[in-house]
Write a structure and sequence with these properties.
By secondary structure, the protein is an alpha/beta fold. It has helices at 20-33, 83-86, and strands spanning 17-18, 39-46, 52-59, 67-71, 74-78, 90-95, 100-105, 118-119. It has two helices and eight strands. The strands form two sheets. Strands 4-5-2-3-8 form a five-stranded mixed beta sheet. The N and C termini lie far apart (55 Å). GO terms for molecular function: 2 iron, 2 sulfur cluster binding; 4 iron, 4 sulfur cluster binding; iron ion binding.
Length: 120
């Protein structure tokens, strides 16, 4: 008896979540600049007083090993080295009288520095 094996390819993705508000704001910023060739990238780099620092920026590059996920037409990329550090993190956009900008709520962060710029 012979059995056929299915060839299925599963695209690896990251576990970062992007709120609808953050996705809308990021898309609006790209539209304002007339850029449809860029995506949002989140990366973790050594630095800051707590040891690790987030980088959140628009990028036109696709790096080897990138994990990409689509949120309502906005692609979010995470490199393989950063992915474990941001697994389950939520990116949001807040616009209040006290604060305006993108925020990252990361359940993997054991703590952060007083300025909130870095984590460990």
């Amino acid at each position: 008896m012979t059995t056929a094996q299915e060839n299925t390819t599963e695209t690896e993705t990251h576990g970062v979540l992007l709120s609808d508000t953050a996705a809308s704001k990021a898309k609006a910023l790209l539209d304002q600049e007339g850029r449809d060739d860029m995506h949002l990238r989140i990366a973790v780099q050594p630095g800051g007083c707590a040891g690790l620092r987030y980088q959140l920026f628009f990028d036109e590059r696709t790096l080897d090993g990138d994990l990409i996920r689509d949120f309502n037409g906005l692609k979010v990329a995470v490199d393989r080295m950063s992915a474990p550090y941001v697994q389950g993190a939520t990116i949001d956009f807040v616009d209040t009288i006290e604060k305006q900008g993108f925020t990252i709520d990361n359940p993997n962060a054991g703590g952060s520095c007083a300025c909130g710029d870095s984590f460990h």
